[in-house]
Amino acid sequence: MKVTLKHHEELGPLVRATRKCQGMRQDDTAEGIGVSENFLAKVERGGGTVQWQKLFQVLTELGLRVEIDVPDAAVALLQEQDRMRGAKR
């Protein structure tokens, strides 16, 4: 099921629910992923100061993917910027 997140605080409960559905304890999960239990707890609470690299490490290890619905106009702009960079080379 795809879930659209509107705020960073909404990600934490999804991480926690996924971990619990997999029957994993917080301390064991953190150790297995290579992050501190304190960090994983911050992720699960939706802490705003979470380090992105570690956050994606946690998400990947739990089998969660982040999908972003990008407006067509933004995709077109990025493609145009890529073409412009390619033309300058």
Automatic annotation (TrEMBL):
SMART domains: HTH_XRE. Residues 14-69 form the HTH cro/C1-type domain. It comes from the Bacteria. InterPro entries: Cro/C1-type_HTH, Lambda_DNA-bd_dom_sf. Gene3D superfamilies: lambda repressor-like DNA-binding domains. Signal peptide: none annotated. GO terms for molecular function: DNA binding. This is Helix-turn-helix domain-containing protein. It comes from Stenotrophomonas rhizophila.
